[in-house]
Amino acid sequence: MCRLFGLHAGRTAVTATFWLLHAPDNLAEQSRRNPDGTGLGVFDAHGHSDVRKQPMAAWHDREFACEAKEMTGTTFVAHVRYATTGKLDVVNTHPFLQDGRIFAHNGVVEGLDRLDERLASLGALRLVKGQTDSERVFALITACIREHGGNVGAGMVDAIGWVADNLPLYAVNVLLCTATDFWALRYPETHDLYMLDRRGAGGAFELRSDRIRARSDHLTRLPSVVFASEPMDGNPAWRLLEPGELVHVDADLNISRPHVFPDPPRHLLQHSDLSPTAAAAQRDQGHGGAHGRNPDPIGPRSGVR
């Protein structure tokens, strides 16, 4: 499953150490659990972006690739990729950068020929450098933000609304950020996306899942808001976003969370509709598995990208 992680510390630059992990597995498991890329995007206190990413194929070594980075910034986005579309290449590895915004995605969108036609009509197809549906969805969001005069929230709603109305869709969980603001969308209910409100800072900041870990001494005493595909510690404050909920965190860490998509996508894909490659990547975590809810009867629903 692809893993998403996002962190916003408002106007304060903090130092955080990230481990983008693929734990050791036997060779049989590696053939099914192929970590295909890791990436980390950061905005520093001056608004400059730094996106570092690397495609990594699990079968190249018995030990899954492990990379640690210590970076300073106000905003962070980390992603571990499980590829279903596009080559194992840097150009297809998250996060992506367009118009000074960093983006990562967990989900499956089909009908890419039609999406390319839409992008071409908006003059945005040139933004796409690789083969993934994720980068295409980001390009559509970027084009719609331009159409809305730079209003990010309106552009996201416009773009994802068009995708939901016109394309076969399994999930579009999205993290999008600038140096000052952060947006997170969970849509529909297929995959989980959690928020941890740490604006009343206190306690150690050391979060870990099985593939992403983040640690920061600064954030033990400074406020922040965190997003992740699953709860990364035992804090009971982790909150599962509602399907269709778009969370916006501004530079002062004010949070708004309108429910922008009350209805499911028009062409919602089921697990049985997916290609063998995409379906195989769904076995990593059941829907809501972090909280022990019952698995989806049609099979696990984990993110692929």
Automatic annotation (TrEMBL):
Residues 2-252 form the Glutamine amidotransferase type-2 domain. It comes from Candidatus Mycolicibacterium alkanivorans. This is Class II glutamine amidotransferase. It holds the Pfam family GATase_4. It comes from the Bacteria. Coiled coil: none annotated. The keyword Transferase does not apply. Residues 276-305 are annotated as: Disordered. CDD domains: YafJ. PANTHER family: GLUTAMINE AMIDOTRANSFERASE, GLUTAMINE AMIDOTRANSFERASE YAFJ-RELATED. Keywords: Glutamine amidotransferase.
